[in-house]
Design brief:
The protein is of the alpha/beta class. About 30% of the residues lie in helices and about 25% in strands.
Length: about 400
């Protein structure tokens, strides 16, 4: 189940969803992209990534969306055949800069073919990996994990806002801050702290004070409001504060926090309802993800209860999984020597990059269906996995 609540837990922006009553007249590509970015904001992507708009224009009306893990020429051809002018992928088509587009590789050929056919390409990659309800939550859902939480939460991504408001206007300002993205801690929203005190100021010539007289020292009973926000919401929050605050020059402070952001980050850890043997678990994973070959290290004979995972290239989290007491760590790719390093410490299960992330298309599907149930949304029938098994 896609946790639609998660987009609000993430930034608490209570915007009205776009409702498509006449899709061909009202639904534009940019509105679909906006829905994707409410669920997985682009600032959540890792520094190396290039998520977001890859090719094309967003003002055009959407004729349909084709969902895929990777963009290939066959996928673009499929979009043309289906009449879809939007392709949404997990892996970005473009990672590096290009000085020319001549069709010398599959990426350039995809770019040329998409432009020629008026197709827009959009990708949600590590921002969707790191988002609550994202890629790893979907994997955990397929496995049947309970009590899921982020394996490695992001750090230094939060700010604390402190502002001072006349008592009578405190509730109005607090509400505006919550609606703009403040106040989310774990699975709680509307979180703040208030303390009553007294503010002083003297309005100088040329000002238009809300209270007090020009040239006179004024004291005003005020509420000190403290709340937390994602750093990437800073602009929207300050704008909301300035709009809601009655003062001409509101006083406020923003402090960077070292706290881990428990809602956002890499990997997932959770528990099975009932323990399984290592062999039973590996066989179930192989069938569930249609894996040609599950690679794993030596079986130890213990039961599997606590499961850690990360789709794609997630081997960097193996030490974290072990430190958190996981019985098994599942990911898409593992380096050869990692199998030696973690021998007898944790069961490593490598199921393939494509296989681990294949259900990402279901996340895209649910987001778009919620925004516009009338839009033609299809999952690609092209198997874009470049790895084949004998």
């Amino acid at each position: 189940m896609i946790r639609r609540k998660s987009e609000y837990l993430l930034c608490n922006v209570r915007q009205n969803d776009y409702i498509c009553t006449n899709f061909r007249e009202q639904m534009k590509i940019k509105e679909i992209i906006a829905a994707l970015e409410r669920f997985a904001p682009l600032p959540l992507q890792d520094g190396f990534d290039n998520a977001g708009l890859q090719v094309g224009l967003t003002e055009a009306e959407a004729t349909g969306a084709l969902l895929c893990l990777d963009v290939t020429e066959a996928v673009i051809d499929e979009a043309v055949t289906l009449g879809c002018n939007l392709v949404i992928s997990h892996h970005p088509l473009i990672f590096k800069g290009y000085k020319s587009i001549t069709g010398r590789d599959y990426i350039e050929r995809c770019i040329l073919k998409a432009i020629r056919n008026g197709i827009t390409i959009y990708s949600a990659h590590t921002n969707l990996d790191n988002a609550p309800g994202g890629v790893n939550y979907k994997i955990a859902e397929k496995i049947g994990l309970k009590n899921v939480r982020i394996l490695e939460p992001k750090e230094e991504c939060l700010l604390k806002l402190v502002t001072f408001v006349p008592v009578a206007h405190a509730e109005e300002v607090r509400k505006a801050l919550f609606e703009s993205g403040c106040g989310c801690i774990g699975n709680y929203d509307s979180c703040s702290y208030s303390l009553q005190g007294e503010g002083t100021f003297r309005a100088m010539e040329g000002t238009n004070p809300f209270c007090g007289q020009i040239g006179e020292l004024h004291s005003e009973p005020e509420i000190r409001i403290e709340t937390v926000l994602p750093a990437f919401r800073k602009g929207a929050v300050v704008k909301a504060l300035m709009s809601a605050h009655p003062y001409e020059e509101p006083a406020f402070d923003l402090y960077p926090l070292k706290n881990a952001w428990s809602q956002v980050g890499a990997g997932i850890i959770g528990e099975l309802e009932e323990p399984e043997t290592e062999l039973e678990f590996l066989k179930r994973i192989k069938k569930l993800f249609e894996v040609g070959c599950v690679k794993h290290n030596k079986l130890t004979g213990k039961l599997i209860q606590k499961v850690a995972l990360c789709g794609g290239s997630g081997a960097f989290l193996a030490s974290r999984a072990m430190a958190c007491g996981a019985d098994v760590f599942i990911t898409g790719e593992v380096k050869y020597h990692d199998y030696f390093h973690y021998e007898n410490q944790i069961l490593m299960a490598e199921i393939g990059h494509y296989e681990s992330e294949q259900y990402t298309k279901e996340i895209f599907y649910s987001i778009i269906r919620d925004v516009c149930p009338e839009i033609d949304v299809q999952m690609t029938r092209v198997n874009t996995n470049p790895i084949k098994y004998l």
